[in-house]
Amino acid sequence: MDFGRPLVSTSGIVTKSNIRLVPETHLGNDPLDILVCQSSNAAARDLFLGNDYHHHPSYSKDELINHTLYNELHLPPPRPTISPGDLVVIFESFTNLNFVYATPKACFSNRNGHFPHDDFIGKPYGCKVRSRNNDGLGFLYLLRPTAELWGRSLPHRTQIVHELDASMIVHNLNLTPNMTVCESGTGSGAMSHCILRSIAPHGKLHTYEFNKVRADKARVEFEGHGLSHLVTVHHRDVCGKMALLKKDTDEQSKETEENKETTDDGKGGFQLGESVAHAIFLDLPEPWLAVPHAAYTLQQSGRICSYSPCMEQTQRTVVALKHCGFHSIQTVEARLKEYYVDEVELEAPPTDLSGIPTQEDSSLQKERCVSGGVLKKNDEQDVNVEAVGDNEVEDIENVTKKRKICARPFAQMRGHTAFLTFATAGNYKTKSNEEDKST
Ligand code: SAM
């Protein structure tokens, strides 16, 4: 992924909020420019360093650094062409996305034909590639991976957070570059990719998954996408129920068999220390058990989001949030209404208005527009609307029609995904927190 690629170092330094200190050695000769730059540098230092900044040996006296400042690093321009090992999203159709890691001599096949990866390597992202068989009639498009496209093409190991909910979550958690974020469970890693893009280039995601196979798989994927420096996958039960699971049924015993290499102490929580995370995202069956740990790990005013499909889960989570001193608690449900573009026949507007009935004229009810057309005799009707007589239908059909491009909503809307509960952390650090449990 582009946001995980090695950064290019330049001469300046930036704050966590990407505010840049201008090296005063490069200010030029204009006295006004110099004054403005010096004043803004001073303001940036005051805002972000307070009075406790110190000189770093490797920087000039104008390039002050402490934990809130970084070397100025930029993403290099996007790689123009596909290289061996690159992740490529394959567009087969609007509803079908797939992916490959471009590998010399490997071949991607689908019902449209065979597509050797060698035909991908060296091509620009976005290009169309034709099948080697079927007379080249089969084709696909090679897309540059983004968090959204990865979410639509990734191998689902669990239910995942989809684009609409993910965007609500990123927005309402106030995620910005260089934040420290905790997430549990990792699942298929779809939400992790969205979080990672928001906190790059210097942020850190700690993601927790108690299923070892999923945790390992996610680690390998992050590595393959060049994101390892931004994320740590913890094989851990954040709710602290692992110990109980060990005693339970056969199936659960199998799960713990998978989990036997864990370093999990069974106490739950994030094990990062107190007040270290800027935001926490929970996608767990029992999020309320993780809430006291989240209260301990979150900085004051840090944001939390819990994603639950059922209202009962949401209610229990809200009670736990209130109990642990969270405020500004809000639950929302987002629905996606997608549109497609279609060509439809529309009547040309009349040029002579004299024959047009007035609004009061009851005959207006006879010509009721339904789904882009004009009501005809056999169309379904609401009460109070008469069918149009045969002769009138003919008249209507004789009216000049024009083909127009228009946007229409899909007849079906994706149903309920989850309730998203957001809240802001207070300064509550008490008994049920990790510190007390670990002592
Ligand atoms: N948000 C993920 C995504 O977008 O791909 C999907 C998460 S999935 C629905 C829930 C995951 O939480 C599962 O992989 C499950 O193994 C994990 N999980 C459930 N309880 C857990 C716990 N107490 N600690 C850590 N992980 C847990």
Automatic annotation (TrEMBL):
Residues 248-269 are annotated as: Disordered. One of its GO terms (cellular component) is nucleus. Residues 138-241, 263-424 form the tRNA (adenine(58)-N(1))-methyltransferase catalytic subunit TRM61 C-terminal domain. One of its GO terms (biological process) is tRNA processing. It comes from Cyclotella atomus. It is an enzyme of class 2 (transferase). It comes from the Eukaryota. Residues 248-267 have a biased composition (Basic and acidic residues). The keyword Transferase applies. This is tRNA (adenine(58)-N(1))-methyltransferase.
